[in-house]
């Protein structure tokens, strides 16, 4: 079975200089697509990527990076909408590059499809009532 | 067939009034015909919920012991400066005011996270707000500084007073330039990467009474979740704007100045708002009831998004340079479809005002009227119409060269 998942990896400072992603390809035969990568001022590394490959390989790879000391988290947890704050105006829909924010033609409300979201953050500041939050 | 507001109010008091929203009236008239529908329907409710910068509130803070004359001094609510050029403890807070230490656009685009609109939202939510004021001191008002918490319960009056709300139609904004721009119409991507608009269209108050036959000074309205009144025509009220053959404006035209007791409003309908790179403002919810006094008035309320056209304006050049150029006209039906065509290019669209909350406001007002909780008022004067000859003036500068 083939899986494709978007995940957030957090590298503690001691691991930032190690070629961990290389091992995912070499040892676990996974494909990766880096969506976002950054090193914070206190030298923690944050990597958002889409990993795909055989389910068995994927699970083993996640076990490998976790054992190496990398924190693994599903991406959907990282962008959220403050439902009480959102007014469903729709200002965000042309900001989102992947169509994760769309107006429902019936209800005229904005649907947030968090499985499509790549956590790029482009919706955060254009939201007039600041209802979108990214936590990476 | 004609009705009077007094007759409609009698039905409202008995709980017998027939009330529909400006959305529902469209199908109703299609089904029943306008003559029959005009007999049956007493009130059509409208709604709009969008960012409205010319909004604010004035407060009477009460007198401290010993007294302070804040008038002519400085006053801040949660660091946001308020206007003090009136009597001792009256202040006015505008929706776009921002703290003096806000970095503004020094690093462009600025965030504008907190301003007057946010303070008003917090007050309406019942929260405490920090009042800091300084004064020069007088014999009768000796104090020179005060720092205290206040909230809506602790102060005398808190009155929302918006100089210009509920614009009758508005521009559709695009960016013809080659860099992203940050405007009051939101973030506009280069080369017409998107288009933004801001109107409730077929639900919008003044588009349902395009010639101001019923809305006037003293009209009781839904304002910010409570009740308010039309105080005057709004600033920049421009009844002479370009209209179609039915009198419906194809450009920004009429506006309303509105007033109401802030203490009975709700934060759901007065929301502090930030436009990245532009500034702070407040999103305001307004609903206006339209009494169906005649078939003609009813027909005006049957307007649909297909019937209302808005001008497409370039905000990289035409708007900032005050050039009259319009790139074309589109209907709100096209805008709500998610994309429009401008100069042969397909452009995705985004709304700045919330249609779903405009529906909610029209429905809330409908419920209030049906339950007999909201009685209509007879305006003491109607808004200036096309015949008033009012036109919108630009600011034509003149050199100041006679200083000796």
Describe this structure in words.
The complex is a heterodimer of chains A (136) and B (404). Chain A contains 2 helices and 8 strands; from the N terminus they run E-H-E-E-H-E-E-E-E-E. Chain A is α+β, with helices and mostly antiparallel strands and 136 residues long. Chain A has 2 domains: 76 residues, Alpha-Beta Plaits; 57 residues, Alpha-Beta Plaits, CATH 3.30.70.20. Chain B has 404 residues and is α+β, with helices and mostly antiparallel strands. Chain B is 15% helix and 30% strand. Chain B has 7 helices and 26 strands. In chain B, helix 2 crosses helix 3. Chains A and B meet through loops of A and strand 3, strand 19, strand 25 and helix 7 of B.
Provide keyphrases for this structure.
heterodimer, A: 136 residues, alpha+beta, Alpha-Beta Plaits, 4-stranded antiparallel beta sheet, two-stranded antiparallel ribbon, 2 helices, 15% helix, 33% strand, elongated, B: 404 residues, 2 domains, globular
**Average residue-wise pLDDT of chain B:** 97
Largest sheet of chain A: 4 strands, antiparallel
Number of beta-strand segments of chain B: 26
What spatial form of chain B do the alpha-carbon principal axes imply? globular
Figure out the total of helices of chain B.
7
Kindly report how far apart the N and C termini of chain A lie: 29 Å
Q: How many whole angstroms does the radius of gyration of chain A measure?
A: 17 Å
CATH superfamily of the largest domain in chain A: ACT domain
Helix content of chain B: 10-25%
What kind of oligomer do you see? heterodimer
Alpha-beta classification of chain A: alpha+beta
Low-confidence stretches of chain B: none
**Given the helix and strand composition of chain B, which structural class is it?**
alpha+beta
Proper CATH architecture of the largest domain in chain A = 2-Layer Sandwich
Q: What does the main sheet of chain B amount to? A: 9 strands, antiparallel
What is the total domain count of chain A? 2
How many alpha or pi helices of chain A?
2
What is the total tally of β strands of chain A?
A: 8
Give the CA-CA distance, first to last residue of chain B.
Answer: 68 Å
Summed up, the domain count of chain B is 2
């Amino acid at each position: 079975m083939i899986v494709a998942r978007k995940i957030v990896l957090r590298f503690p400072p001691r691991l930032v200089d190690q070629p961990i992603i290389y091992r995912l390809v070499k040892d676990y035969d996974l494909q990766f697509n880096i969506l976002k990568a950054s090193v914070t001022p206190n030298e923690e590394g944050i990597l958002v990527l889409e990993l795909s490959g055989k389910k068995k390989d994927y699970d083993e790879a996640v076990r490998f990076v976790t054992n190496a000391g990398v924190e693994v988290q599903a991406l959907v947890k990282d962008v959220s909408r403050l439902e009480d704050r959102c007014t469903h105006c729709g200002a965000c829909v042309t900001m989102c590059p992947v169509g994760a924010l769309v107006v429902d033609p019936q209800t005229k409300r904005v649907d947030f499809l968090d499985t499509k979201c790549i956590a790029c953050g482009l919706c955060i500041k254009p939201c007039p009532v600041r209802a979108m939050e990214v936590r990476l | 067939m004609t009705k009077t507001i007094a007759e409609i109010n009698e039905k409202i008091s008995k709980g017998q009034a027939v009330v529909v929203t400006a959305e529902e009236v469209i199908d109703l008239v299609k089904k029943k015909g306008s003559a029959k529908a005009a007999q049956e329907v007493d009130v059509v409710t409208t709604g709009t919920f969008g960012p409205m910068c010319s909004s604010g509130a004035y407060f009477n803070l009460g007198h401290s012991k010993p007294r302070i004359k804040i008038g002519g001094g400085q006053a801040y609510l949660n660091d946001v400066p308020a206007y003090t050029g009136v009597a001792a403890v009256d202040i006015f807070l505008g929706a776009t005011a921002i703290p003096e230490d806000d970095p503004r656009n020094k690093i462009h685009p600025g965030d504008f996270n907190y301003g007057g609109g946010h303070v008003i939202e917090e007050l309406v939510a019942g929260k405490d707000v920090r009042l800091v004021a300084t004064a020069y001191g007088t014999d009768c008002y000796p104090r020179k500084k005060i720092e205290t918490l206040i909230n809506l319960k602790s102060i005398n009056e808190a009155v929302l007073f918006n100089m210009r709300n509920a614009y009758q139609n508005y521009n559709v904004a695009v960016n013809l330039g080659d860099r992203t721009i940050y405007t009051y119409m939101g973030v506009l991507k280069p080369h017409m990467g998107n288009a933004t608009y801001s109107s409730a269209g077929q639900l919008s108050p003044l588009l349902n009474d395009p010639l101001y036959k019923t809305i006037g000074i003293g009209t009781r309205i839904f304002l910010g979740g409570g009740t308010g009144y039309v105080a005057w025509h709004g600033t920049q009220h421009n009844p002479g704007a370009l209209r179609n053959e039915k009198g419906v404006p194809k450009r920004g035209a009429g506006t309303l100045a509105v007033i109401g007791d802030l203490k009975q409003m709700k934060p759901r309908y007065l929301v502090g708002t930030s436009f990245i790179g532009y500034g702070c403002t407040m999103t305001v919810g307004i609903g206006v009831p339209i009494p169906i006094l005649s078939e003609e008035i009813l027909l005006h309320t049957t307007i649909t998004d297909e019937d209302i056209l808005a001008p497409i304006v370039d905000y990289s050049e035409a708007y900032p340079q005050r050039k009259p150029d319009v790139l074309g006209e589109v209907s709100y039906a096209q805008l709500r479809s998610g994309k429009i065509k401008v100069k042969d290019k397909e452009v995705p669209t985004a709304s700045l005002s919330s249609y779903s909350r405009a529906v909610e406001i029209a429905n809330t007002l409908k419920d209030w009227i049906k339950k007999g909780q909201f009685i209509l008022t007879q305006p003491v004067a109607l808004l200036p119409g096309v015949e008033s000859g009012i036109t919108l003036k630009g600011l034509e500068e003149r050199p100041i060269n006679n200083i000796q």
